């Protein structure tokens, strides 16, 4: 019989292999610490939600809802379900369902996989991960500034450089509608200058005309009415408040009038953190209408989500030699009678918190040592029958002071082994081995 056909993973959905793990761990540790520092509490919602949650929450005419959702009918009960493309809608659903705002505002955070059927490319996947923060029940610009500062602290903590903040205000729906009407009037008045694409979009999505690459239309686009000219006093004051708070903390930003975000639930402040190679690693803003849109009592809110893979990619580039998590000890054993005691030795070292790999599968001394070396362990413990009979084992430095050639070895009484390894590890840490 021939070899069975191999089954490949789903395109755009990645395995995270053990060599990548140190980066994920470092990132996740920093996230947990920063969220804690700002008083955010973790929430975990299901990966699958009812499809109408996203259609209503994100908006029917958005890229996500129109063409990127993994939606399906549950064959067992006919429910319309979707793999979450983002988590804000799910968190809002949970907040409403459990009445979490009953005793005041809440600061929440989450992380986990999200799913969007996009064309896979660098930094764009079909399963990707987000970390998000949502401040719910807060109306003022202080909350907007807080979530921005939280992101900034995380970049600093991770040592990320080349990340810039862009902000904008989308005002309120009424202000956006007035702007939209003015845009249509402007383009209508110059209909003869519009290309076919723009003419098609004029009444469905006039904002998209502003993104045209057609050089012949640049002057017309430049002269088009800007949204900020339609913001009322309250919207303006809110945006000014956010800027003042950022200025007070010395956070640099650029106001980008073209920043509109791809989800319908936003109002007032929107922002993105963008890298110098043009990738958005974090996007968010205020979404005051969403809670009521999803059936809750109206409450203001703002937040953001980070694209984890994009941040990790950046971390790898900024600190390419991040040390992997290494194990402390690899236990080598020779002779049939040595396995039992070797297992005991390994367990005793684990009792004191050491990370220990016990060699499995037998083999020559040489082949066991090869494995020990490849494991990244700092010490090998050698359990041979004769030594064990004397109540001893040998301990060998695999990452030795003075370089790999200068390996040391010593004999240690079984009872003293765990302490001796801990002491040697501390000494090695001090010597920077
Ligand atoms: P979003 O802009 O759709 O916002 O996604 C946030 C971030 O997720 C993006 O800036 C990007 O870094 C990452 N991302 C999005 N799609 C992909 C993909 N296909 N592959 C890799 N990374 C991706 C939201 O999702 C909102 N829920 C953010 C929010 C929270 N607004 C308020 N609260």
Morphology: elongated
Low-confidence stretches are none
Mean pLDDT: 93
**At the fourth CATH level, what is the homologous superfamily of the largest domain?**
Bira Bifunctional Protein, Domain 2
Q: Helical element count? A: 16
Distance between the termini: 51 Å
- Small molecules (ligands, ions, cofactors) in the structure: histidyl-adenosine monophosphate
Class per helix and strand makeup: alpha+beta
As a percent range, the share of strand residues is: 15-25%
Radius of gyration: 29 Å
Please tell me the CATH architecture of the largest domain by its name.
2-Layer Sandwich
User: How many β-strand runs?
Assistant: 16
Helix content: 25-40%
Largest sheet: 8 strands, mixed
**What is the CATH topology of the largest domain?**
BirA Bifunctional Protein, domain 2
The largest beta-sheet arranges its strands as 1-5-6-11-10-9-7-8
Count up the domains.
2
The CATH class of the largest domain: Alpha Beta
